[in-house]
């Protein structure tokens, strides 16, 4: 029984390795070579992202925390209290802590793909907020969540902080917002963190920190792909490039080959010219108005928003 179990496990792993190789190959065979930013986030990549959030140059995380802390009561007044609060991609459930007392949800449902990490975070949170029912769900961000019957009829609110929405193209963002609109039904809301357009110098610094943490984060996707697929990228032979594209209102991150080189992924060889780039991430920046327009395409209506004094970051509230 032992042997067959391990054979099954390894063939399942093989299948998913193949699927990952195929996804990477297809991105590198495209006219504009690209890698999905989800490959940043293995364990080491998540640690690097955590370090990014603490850098002087990287304003979004601390600014959003300032806004949540300062306006928690006002946010609760606008959104109402006692709803079912859902958080896709909740991870460590860190930011919701700042709102739980004020929002007094009927239930908090953090949703995340990494089950163990999520359940540990939810258990810790439950011990800090024993009066709020916390029901973690291990699922993909876009999964349809079946709520327990006793929560039927209670308005739902989705909390989506961090400006993760900025890492989607506008078309993908509308698709995600439509999913949110279906999740909240006709009497629910969305509270979302959105990074704002600003002086490009501030943006360029935020994605080109002096300590090189963002560079390491960018290159780490290649190490992760090596581990997942047996590819032979040498991350040190790719330079970190990040810049604000003013006409598209987005940060673009690329990896640039420092010389001619070949990399083998899933048995296929890819040639890179010197200075050839692979796109690894977009981080779109909006105005309060341009984001409201995008949300309107998904049937979400702008109600209120909160920004910091320097207008770097926004928290925006929408209803169906
Ligand atoms: C997760 N996301 C909102 C970050 C951002 O700013 O777009 C990811 C990141 N990329 C480089 N630095 C941070």
Could you explain how this protein is built, in words?
With 320 residues, the chain is an alpha/beta fold. 40% of the residues lie in helices and 23% in strands. The strands form three sheets. A seven-stranded mixed β-sheet has the order 3-2-1-4-5-12-11, sandwiched between helices. Strands 6-7-10 form a three-stranded antiparallel β-sheet. Strands 8-9 form a two-stranded antiparallel ribbon. It starts with a helix and ends with a strand. The structure holds N,N-dimethyl-L-histidine. The site of N,N-dimethyl-L-histidine has 11 residues, from strand 10. Residues 52, 60, 162-164, 166-167, 207, 214, 281, 283 line the site of N,N-dimethyl-L-histidine.
Write the layout of secondary structure elements.
Elements: H1 2-29, H2 43-53, H3 60-79, E1 84-88, H4 97-103, E2 107-112, H5 115-128, E3 137-138, E4 156-160, H6 170-184, E5 189-195, H7 200-206, H8 213-229, E6 238-245, E7 250-257, E8 261-265, E9 268-272, E10 277-284, H9 288-297, E11 301-307, E12 313-319
Parallel strand pairs: 1-2, 1-4, 2-3, 4-5
Antiparallel strand pairs: 5-12, 6-7, 7-10, 8-9, 11-12
């Amino acid at each position: 029984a032992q042997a067959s179990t391990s054979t099954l496990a390894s063939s399942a792993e093989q299948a998913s390795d193949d699927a990952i190789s195929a996804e990477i190959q297809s991105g590198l065979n495209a006219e504009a070579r690209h890698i999905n930013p989800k490959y940043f986030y293995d364990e080491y990549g998540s640690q690097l992202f955590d370090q990014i959030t603490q850098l002087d140059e990287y304003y979004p995380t601390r600014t959003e925390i300032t806004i949540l802390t300062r306006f928690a009561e006002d946010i609760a007044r606008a959104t109402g209290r006692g709803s079912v609060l859902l958080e896709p991609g909740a991870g460590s459930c860190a930011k919701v802590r700042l709102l739980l007392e004020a929002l007094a949800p009927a239930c908090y449902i953090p949703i995340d793909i990494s089950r163990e990490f999520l359940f540990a975070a939810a258990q810790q949170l439950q011990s800090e907020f024993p009066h709020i029912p916390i029901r973690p769900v291990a699922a993909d961000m876009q999964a349809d969540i079946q709520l327990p019957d006793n929560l039927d009829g209670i308005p739902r609110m989705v909390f989506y902080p961090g400006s993760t929405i900025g890492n989607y193209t506008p078309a993908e963002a509308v698709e995600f917002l439509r999913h949110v609109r279906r999740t909240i039904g006709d009497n629910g809301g969305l509270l979302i963190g959105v990074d704002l357009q600003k002086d490009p110098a501030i943006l360029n610094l935020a994605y080109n920190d002096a300590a090189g943490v963002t560079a390491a984060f960018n290159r780490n996707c290649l190490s992760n792909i090596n581990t997942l697929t047996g590819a032979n990228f040498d991350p040190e032979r790719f330079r970190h490039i990040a810049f604000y594209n003013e006409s598209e209102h987005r940060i673009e991150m690329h990896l640039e080959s420092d010389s001619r080189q070949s990399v083998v992924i899933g048995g296929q060889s890819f040639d890179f010219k010197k200075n050839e780039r692979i796109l690894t991430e977009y981080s779109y920046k909006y105005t309060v108005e341009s984001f409201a327009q995008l949300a309107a395409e998904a049937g979400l209506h702008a109600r209120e928003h909160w920004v910091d004094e320097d207008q770097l970051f926004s928290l925006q509230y929408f209803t169906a």
